[in-house]
Amino acid sequence: MESIMKRPYFYLLCSIVFTLLCFSVCRVPAQAPTRPKIVFASTRNGNHGNAEIYVMNADGSQQIRLTHHPRDDTDPTWSPNGEHIAFVSDRDHKGLPDIYLMDADGKNIRRAFDDLEYRTAPAWSPDGTQIAYRTYSPVPDWAVYTKTLGGGEAERIAESGTGLSGFPAWSPNGTEIAFVSGKSPEWHIRIINLKTREEDRILPKVQGDNMLYPAWSPDGKQLAFS
Questions:
Q1: What CATH number was assigned to the domain covering residues 4-225?
Q2: How confident is the model over 17-61, as pLDDT tens digits?
Q3: Quick check: 28 and 17 in contact, CB under 8 A?
Q4: Sheet architecture: strand order including 176-182
Q5: The pLDDT of residue 158 is above 70
Q6: β-strand partners of 223
Q7: pTM, rounded to two decimals
């Protein structure tokens, strides 16, 4: 794994996201690589504070609501081929969010995995066959797992012990996953090589700064975070 000293990193301000979606309390948007559409979650519909999933053009026009459910629908992200959307909802069990899939037009909503479990922050593998996600249980607290769609056992990538471990982001070549780890006020980003299991830790530039929501550049050479 490359030394972290050779990796350029930069800050991506959260205000960019919130300015784009300033109509209401919104969630981080995700853009499909093969489609000129942005998918995002918003509470604009007045659904008792719960969010729904929308898509829009890159310029903010033609905003279309995809989900219509009384429970919370959040964390949408495009599949690599732009044909599906993964998102988080507790529609099958109040207070137990899990990952769901739907087609790009909002149809054919189904759970990503057969078993119902606490799963959030989905991230597609570049080939679209796996999803990385954050999960929680009393032991080992927060953890990051990957699981193959259509079957297979979940594989634990990282665990926090008593801190935070989550918000995974798959590298474009599929060999690494960046994720958030540590305890507030110093959440930091780690990068794990999926083959060797070696990790790099990226420290905040200022002590006490939290680093969240990592996102890779298309060439895999840079990492944005808030």
A1: 2.120.10.30
A2: 333 333 333 445 565 545 579 999 999 887 788 999 999 999 999
A3: yes
A4: 164-170, 176-182, 188-193, 199-202
A5: yes
A6: 9, 216
A7: 0.81
